[in-house]
Amino acid sequence: MDLESTDILLMSKDCKPIRAHQAIIAARSPKIREMIISTPSQSLVRLDDINYEQLKIIIELMYTNKCTLPSNLTSDDVENLKHVLIDYGVELSEEQTTL
């Protein structure tokens, strides 16, 4: 990712940031799009219900339509991640229907 061209900072609940491109993030998540619209002067979006590891996976999915799950994820972690994806409206492609 070209960090110089990023225009939004996503902050996980454990206060670890990830820089991203607003247009991509807004296009992939209706919930984050609403957060951006409600505070247009802010370039920081706090995601108080997503931890950093989940956020990294979600961002990878938003950008590439694929994700690499760390081998240390438990089945509970995967289920929680699925719920977060549903809550944020991030759709999986046909190939990604199973996390």
From TrEMBL:
InterPro entries hit by this protein: BTB/POZ_dom (IPR000210)
Domain BTB, residue spans: 6-71
Classification via Pfam families: BTB
SMART domains: BTB
Name of this chain's protein: BTB domain-containing protein
